[in-house]
Amino acid sequence: MSTLRFKLVEEAFKHKAVPVAEPVERPSEFYGKYVFNREKMFKYLPKKTYDKLVDLIDNNTPLSREVADSVADGMKRWAMELGATHYTHWFQPLTDGTAEKHDAFIEHDGKGGVVEEFSGKLLIQQEPDASSFPNGGIRNTFEARGYSAWDPSSPAFIMDKTLCIPTIFISYTGEALDYKAPLLRALNSVDKAATEVCHYFDTNVKKVYSYLGWEQEYFLVDESLYAARADLMLTGRTLMGHESSKNQQLEDHYFASIPSRVAAFMRDLEIECQKLGIPVKTRHNEVAPNQFEIAPIFEEANLANDHNLLLMSIMEKISRRHNFRVLLHEKPFKGINGSGKHNNWSLGTDTGVLLFAPGKTPQENLQFITFVTNTIMAVHKFNGLLKASISSATNAHRLGANEAPPAIISIFMGKQLTDILNKIENSATEEAILLDGKVGLKLGIAQIPELLLDNTDRNRTSPFAFTGNRFEFRAVGSSANCASAMIALNAAVADQLRQFKTEVDAEIAKGIAKEKAIFDVLKKYLKASEAIRFDGNGYSEEWKEEAAKRGLDCETSVPLIYDAYLTPESIKMFADTNVFTEVELHARNEVKWEMYTKKIQIEARVLGDLVMNHIIPVATRYQSSLLDNVYKVKALFPTDKVEKIAAQDMVLIEKIANHLSVINEKVTSMVDARKVANKIESEREKAIAYHDTVAPLMDEIRYHVDKLELIVDNEIWPLPKYRELLFIR
Ligand code: ADP
Ligand code: MG
């Protein structure tokens, strides 16, 4: 008897909403309580230090050791007043999530005691042992140690009585070993390139920001049931489990009222986030049962990304308080929707203009069309790379799975904008531009309707959609570090804008008027990038055929998708934008392939164990009880009756025997395939072997286990079933 499973289900049922300590204050009062923001800087730093620090943050000016010491001292005083005892450099290695090593604020005082100390040196730089983090061979090649270095553009914060200092993580020879360093480089590059292009329209622009508004989807499961699912615990997803008879068919979960246990969790989570300065704003149920979403107000991309990583770790912590476990995996359950993390992305100037929002004057609208067209062009050129930037072993289960973006990148522009772009593309410049005196554009560009700002014209099946004043990159996975996508996108757009500037300047140098030069180049781009624009159903089979005809990247094997980082075009683009050197690209791809292999390897092991220790014994036991029954029937009934009475049992016995024999055979093949793959030296080839030979066997094994789940007596089935995991009351 699987009494354990029933006991756990019973326990899960008993879990009630955990009351949240009502905050006495309003969010505006506790917001940012644990963040060393400008207000705290002003309060805790000498005026001179404050001015220097603000100048450093805003204008990237250098920082003297003296100022660093002064900042560190102020930070320490602030942190200690809030009860902090330790500090850590908080960084983003190439694994999932973040890393930190805590040190107490203590130093010998020379008299046998200690003093609390925190110097500028410790604030600016630390040396975590880089060899324990994935580095793709950079360390070995260069015999370089790694160090973490302070990123003053993202404010320090306190979590669990520890002062956390956001840092980049690089090798001594300067190669990035993390996500933040290249993200900062990409943001810098797009800032420079976009600012120059803005100068065609407004010479007052000094800086262009890249904005990110992520939408984090996640699942919750009851902690008791989670504990009985080794697969969820070790791999983040269920490796087996038959679909529940009811799941999302009735579409009764999306935007439905939030169960009280979950609402309590959300409130608790939001309060914690807001104390850490994360501007979370939106919450709702998602499409699948037990699936939810949380989204903040968008922020500058580096900060937004830090906040997303912070959110993910806070979620895990808070969920425990509510007897939940949060699942950030892209596809925890087969047969229902997976989780993504839409990245709403835009560019905006320091003069307050959103560059993807249509303006009021012809000038503003030409600027808008310029940025939109260059983005389309960048996504077209680098569609394979953008796909690589969001691809992982876990996200692969979601992409192309009929409810999520397809494994092909295309852009949705909506009808209105498509009409305008088509008109531009097909018009003769002469008829489009009035050069008589005042500059202006015909074709309705001057009067792009405000309606465009309206989001009604939405296409949920597009991986990259224009949504009024921004683009929404929907293919990003729920567990991913958004930086990966943001690095590729911002770098590609920066590169494209640089090229645009070169081409337009060349025309102008020939004596062609600026507006006409811009218009001509845009026209050319719109023609060249036609293939990437697609407003139809991205989930359909026809699109796959059509996309291949259009020459878009249709590769579905993750290890091969990663090759897009190493094409001559990508290498040149990343070098020209100063985002990655070729050495870094190669090293990082090694890490990507290695991570892919390891994820599949772990899953294959867990699946093998579960099948051998949980499923086969139970199925055999049930089969044997059926055999027992047949024996007894034979003993008691006349032979001519036996066949009829025991018929059903006989059928089941045979079915179980068939499933078990296939499972046994496939598990053996899977182990063999692993052994062969493990011997391969090249990380790329090994990952390909895992993709081609190991992963498919896991699917086959699962199929037969799920069939057994339907046959075997419910009383003895050991793993909590989907219907038990998926419906929080
Ligand atoms: P959806 O309807 O797509 O689910 P949500 O309200 O859940 O929208 O999330 C939209 C996200 O987009 C929010 O984080 C929001 O702040 C962000 N956003 C809005 N405008 C912009 C913009 N111009 N640039 C970047 N992000 C934006
Ligand atoms: Mg949303």
Task: State the gist of this model.
The protein is of the alpha+beta class and 729 residues long.
Question: Overview of this structure, please?
Answer:
The protein is an alpha+beta fold and 729 residues long. It has three domains: 31-177, Glutamine synthetase, N-terminal domain (Ubiquitin-like (UB roll)), CATH 3.10.20; 188-580, Glutamine synthetase/guanido kinase, catalytic domain (Creatine Kinase, Chain A, domain 2); 594-725, Four Helix Bundle (Hemerythrin (Met), subunit A), CATH 1.20.120. Helix content is 50%, strand content 13%. It has 26 helices and 19 strands. The strands form four sheets. Strands 9, 10, 11, 12, 13, 14, 15, 18 and 19 form a nine-stranded mixed β-sheet that branches. Strands 1, 2, 5, 6, 7 and 8 form a six-stranded mixed β-sheet that branches. It has a two-stranded antiparallel ribbon with strand order 3-4. The longest helix is centred in the C-terminal third of the chain and has 55 residues, at 582-636. The radius of gyration is 29 Å and the shape is globular. The structure holds adenosine-5'-diphosphate and magnesium ion (MG).
